[in-house]
Amino acid sequence: MGVSTSGPDKGIALVTVDFPPVNALPVHGWYELADALRAAGRDPEVRCVVLAAGGRGFNAGVDIKEMQRDSGHAALIGANRGCYEAFAAVYECEVPVVAAVHGFCLGGGIGLAGNADAIVASEDAVFGLPELDRGALGAATHLARLVPQHLMRALYYTSRTATAAELHAHGSVWKVVPRTELSAAALELAAEIAKKDGALIRLAKAAINGIDPVDVRRSYRFEQGFTFEANLSGVADRVRDTFGKAQGGTA
Question: DSSP secondary structure string, 176-237?
Fold first, then answer.
């Protein structure tokens, strides 16, 4: 349980997240993930990172129950800062990051996948932001990197999800494969990237980030400001207190 790093092939670091039962990460989990991604990117032998997850789905966001147990705002602040660091660690990783997504990719999962350089997904993967149902805001910055603007807004306002096939049609998912083939497909793409010159691939990553039209760190931080406002006003608590009463799960 937790975050682990392995080296399945030359030039590739596999960072795996495993927080049962649904990969809803506690505060310390987001920081562990950020540290693992940054360490992998700094390794001069690594030319590509694959971000994967164990269990039922890729990521279900933050651990809402951890917030519910906190009578103050420490858990909220910790989760927001942790997510900020983990999302940034994907985007700023010194080498390309391939996200291998299976099952659900929700909330914080969108922040991770949306900041990845490429996404390989299983046929059962679904992507969405149930934030409005959880008393939160955020990661529209990253969903906007996966789908067109108006679709992003409709998905955000309704808390609906999009399938891997739909994202593939929009060009944001590289390949959709059966669940049993996900790991091999992600490693295959990573191996192709890892064949490039190590110094040049790092320059390429920095150059591509430099021409992005949106500063993802600044944009996401702006969104987080409204999450704090929702909490201070009591709106978030009112919505969050319904979590787990009508339906189970985390987001």
Answer: EE-GGGHHHHHHHHHHHHHTS-HHHHHHHHHHHHHT-SS-HHHHHHHHHHHHHHHHHHTHHH
